[in-house]
Records
---
Amino acid sequence: MITAQQQVKDLLDFIDNSPSPYHAVKNIEEKLSAFDFKRLNETEKWDLKPGSRYFIVRDDSSIIFFVLGKKPLSETGYRILGAHTDSPGLKIKPNAVNNADGLLRLGVEVYGGPILATFTDRDLSLAGRISYKAASGDIASRLVRFDQALLRLPNLAIHMNRKVNEDGLKLHKQTELPLILAVAVEQQLSEKYLHNLLVKASDIDAHDILSWELSVYDTQKGVFWGDNKQFYADSQLDNLASCHAGMQALLDENTLNSDNTLVCAFFDHEEIGSESTKGASGCFLPDVLQRIGFAMDVDKEDYQRALARSFMISADMAHAYQPNFPSAYEPEHKVTVNRGPVIKVNANHRYSSESLSEAMFISWCEASEVPYQKYSHRADIPCGSTIGPMTSAKLGIRTVDVGNPMWAMHSIRESAGVEDHCYMIKVLNTFFSVE
Ligand code: CO
């Protein structure tokens, strides 16, 4: 029996090895291969066998993996868990290096909605993918990661920012976010500087590197904290914690031999609205579900019957109550860390939950002896959203929005409760395995 601490240790290792969505997907692929999942290519014909396991990667940072059930799709539908692989943060601009005032700095663009002030005074570095001309003449991609603290955004001393504790730290997105990289040496060609670093880190010849996508990440590793180590902290808990919980729930011998068709779909680009070839609002999931149907000779009507029988859990982190800020929360919906997964409800359908899908999730919590909580955002503060509403609208699949409670969502250092991670794995395991 794996303890809650061991599950969370595995999660922290997964996050620390996944400094970008590309790395997260690579790590998931490796884990799946150890469980006999076969890679399918979207350009090839799919030959699928009931009871077998498969995965598809789109553009290196979104992944769908599934276990094909032994029963016909029209009788079981798909059981889907959706989550996202990306987190808000900073991305490096193409012509990134700026040489001024004796320093080289890297220009960044803000990706999604991070709490920018949390990026100051951290041991930052870079990770992502490089696209290059391979020896065969084809264009290929390779992941790259700098392990050392390479970059920093030093805060302004309080002596120059006397009101920082009253007004908060505000950073101008264009002028105050460039990250310090090195002392400039005279006659250095600044535009070649980052290129040279990439050559060294990737082992690709300088003239073969054509383009790249790099995100800023925090090199500090995850920790357990609190007197009894009941909490944990790391970057990217939103939403790699949900990806990890889904993966652990599915990769269980009982679940893997299910009669039902079980699907995990983890998408990039959620933090920027999901509108892309690999985002949750794109065609990736509909394409894959349909192709599973084609490969199983399911006709159009039976495919629609399968969708009508399907269920999706959209798992994304939720806001835990922080008692220092009582006025930020809806007083009757204070969600507590370590008291179980949260069902998210919103009248304007920013979350996809409705009473029937909520009730089904509650029944799986009860069957797994897992406590649950309900969350509603304050009516006077705009509510966030998830991949739930867009995927359920596209596919017509009944969906519930859930997530584990966490503090400091979109900070570079988020934290959550150890017990909750185990609870989530348990209830997702029940979702995948109940008849
Ligand atoms: Co999220």
---
Amino acid sequence: MKLWLIGAYGIVSTTTAVGGIAIEKGLVDRTGLVSELPQFNSIDDYVKLNFKFGGHEIRDLEGNFYSAALMHWEKNKHYDFNILNEVKNDLKNIKARKGTALMCGTGIEEFGEIKTLEDDELSLREIVDKIEDDMRRFKDNETVVINLASTEPVHRFNKKYHESVDGFERMIDEDEKKYASASMLYAYAAIKNGIPYGNFTPSVGSSLPALKKLALENKVPHVGNDGKTGETLIKTTLAPMFLYRNLKIVGWMGYNILGDFDGKVLSHKDNKESKIISKDSVLEKILGYSPYSITEIEYFPSLVDNKTAFDFLHFKGFLGTKMKFYFIWDGIDAIVASPIVIDIARFLLFAKKRGKYGVIKEMAFFFKSPMENRVINTHEQFYQLVSWFREML
Ligand code: NAD
């Protein structure tokens, strides 16, 4: 499969590329890949684990996938260096193309010098044409675009430009840059060119009505939003236990600290808001009521990519007695996220090959804010994915 990654030189993207090629070469096993579970064993007949990578970036454009992966490795040492060394030659020749950072908020200022298509004083139509052209040159029948760029601020919905495909194209032709964010433009370019699209971030991506309609018209499968990999994965796996035992959760506090670029970008109020909304809404959807909740995300530089989540739950049991439960999650973000990126791409290609298009609701299992699916309970989501897969065979 060919993965076009938006945010190509980020830690999740480069770890996905290192891991994908290492799997293909037989250097590492497939632990962490959901699609390798026995329930999905015939997926290999449809989508094999062989890889080509490319993508869009807005920084370090003189570098390549290897230099970017090495930079992240030096800061994090998040896997055995020999693996990186063995895939060095495969990654060295892959260079990202210049992308757009329209309406990406103040968070990306943290990257220092960035280079974008809009710096070249291009119109919206010219920016979109360039993005499409890059994707078209790369694509074949087994290509997927995955958004792994920094989280954008929440965008206000604009009925005139975001509701219909015609409106969206009018926005481009009228050069209305203030209504267009980078993530929606990349999603538009992918879907317009028939490429399945997955949004691993909380940014708007393909969730606009206009882009959902375009995906139906062009028969393109797409999914999002925001990969479920850490604290939210645990929250949505644990909360159902309280529900099944008829224990009432009265309060849930989650305090997340993380370093690295993602942490820096999320330390900006407008960029952080998207993430908090995505994390916060899950409890009410599972429990049917909303307990008192606090969700904090703070930048903690020395942790680099090691995210720590401290969670405290207050719950009420028999005779009205209140009890407490605490957990600490010490995950390495890129290590939990990267196999899921491969899974998302693989299931999207499977969907395409089985003639499914539009939002693939049954892939909710992979997301914090699944599109068009109110099932948030991880157990139920897993069974949905398994039954969908079996029905599609
Ligand atoms: P990162 O900061 O290492 O990488 C983001 C990359 O995107 C950077 O290289 C940056 O230069 C690039 N970028 C920013 N804006 C861009 C744009 N408009 N166009 C092209 N490139 C752009 O972050 P990461 O840890 O790799 O995470 C990537 C995304 O995935 C973030 O939005 C994060 O919130 C999301 N996410 C991560 C996890 C996880 O477990 N790691 C889980 C869910 C969601």
---
Amino acid sequence: MTENKPLSDVERIKIESNYLRGTIREGLADTLTGSISADDQQLMKLHGSYQQQDRDLDEERRKQKLEPLYSFLIRIRVAGGVATAKQWLDIDALADKYGNPTIKLTTRQAFELHGVVKRNLKATIKGINATLLDTLAACGDVNRNVMTSANPWETEIHQQVYDDSLKLHTDLSPKTTAYHEIWVNDELVEGGEKVEDHEPMYGKTYLPRKFKIAVAIPPRNDVDAYANDLAFVAIVEKGKLVGYNVLAGGGMGTTFGLETTYPRLASVIGFVKTEDIVEAAKAVIIFQRDNGNRSDRKNARLKYTIDRVGLDVFTSAIQTVLGDKLQPAKPFHFDSNGDAYGWKKSFNGKWYFTLFVQGGKVKNDDKLQLKTALCEIASVHKGNFILTGNQNLVIGEVAEEDKAEIDALLSKWKLTNKLSGLRLNSLACVALPVCGMAFAEAERYLPSLLEKLEVELEKFGLIDDEIIIRMTGCANGCARPFLGEIAMVGKAPDRYNLYLGAGFSGDRLNKLYAEMVSEEEILGLLIPILKHYSEERLSGERFGNFVIRTGYVKETLIGKDFHKDISLVKYVPEK
Ligand code: SF4
């Protein structure tokens, strides 16, 4: 629904693209520039790639009268986050050959390669497809990688839920042949210039905006179910998976200064049996396809559609499609949204090890040779690697007889070193230098801020306490900052908005506490609160709950209240 306003230009681009073809092939062949046309940049997202430029080098290149150093991010879908050891090695080799060379593990269980220049794009995406992974629908106005509670072998229920997630992944993927034609096959699939595809669910214009689905298994909310457009929460009765509660309308992104935009927690709308999960997903997607705002992309996500039409109207529309299949929701409870680290045993008798990956960045540096270490592990590992929704990695399906060898490699590469509870619960987006939206650093800066906070946490006896901290370079919300008990969102170079008070299990938004603060101000504001927390918290009280109970910020349970009841503080240094 566009309320008679003109369609956004992205809608024109999709309509004219002949099912995502545009002029991508021609743009790739143009060797005079490292970029592609603005229209094709929009379409490329649905092929899993963003054009970026190295902003660290912009000034120097401008002086030399060179165009910016363009390169491409490539996001690789990994259904349920599960990749084989062979796939790990193949992706690592592609990162070395064509990327910068690092692998980013995203907050949606995908791989990202960065720094791929245009002339290598096709070889890289073709190489990814050769590993039996793909990049289709990893970004853009379509359903993206379906997130699933990490480790399908944790319990039998996890295995069943993983299988249901794979059904969602497959059934909700776009059906255009353009992807295969451009990146894999080299041939026009039907042998002619004007191939007419058919998108039975999406239609020619796909969705008004990105669409995110997660599947969670209580009590762990390691996929941040409430942050998704659509989430399914597994309901287990008498030890059996009976179906899923359906949650709709979550999303993190907001725009500074625009109060019509806000993060929103997904609302619980009902319950469906296991066999109805795909039909339920399609009903919600089609509602959004037909009712989402296609004029204003800042108000196009499902969360705004639901708040515009009303949750009752939305739910009854879904009920009309699903009939008796949409039943009243069943009780469930989450107790955390982080990962459980270290060695654990699966229901099938095999072991798995959950490894913290700072900022999801798999690279080698002076402190840690993580990339080399994981390649060495992958070369002997007979099981899988599972990307978690918290940018971490599970080394899965380790047989009893292989555990000692993997353990020795983890120790050899210092991957079992003790880390603070704050660090283990930290997330950061990519931000500078490559994200064009970033106002400030995130992934490159958060580790050093954590070091400074850890000195204080040690003094306060909080070093092992789990506190969720998140940092992003802008308010788009890629690392789900508004679900951080502590969050910093970049607003200008070296300046952040500081938010406090989200729920430890991802069920409450945080609230703006201080605006445009520097590192000195962040530390000056946070350290006394952490000290206060160490002294006066109630038994078992989480940091996010503490800052609300003691009045630092007001509780925020619904998105429309995100901008209300804000009392900003200013840091005044001691003289
Ligand atoms: Fe870029 Fe903003 Fe997303 Fe960070 S949150 S990766 S800065 S768009």
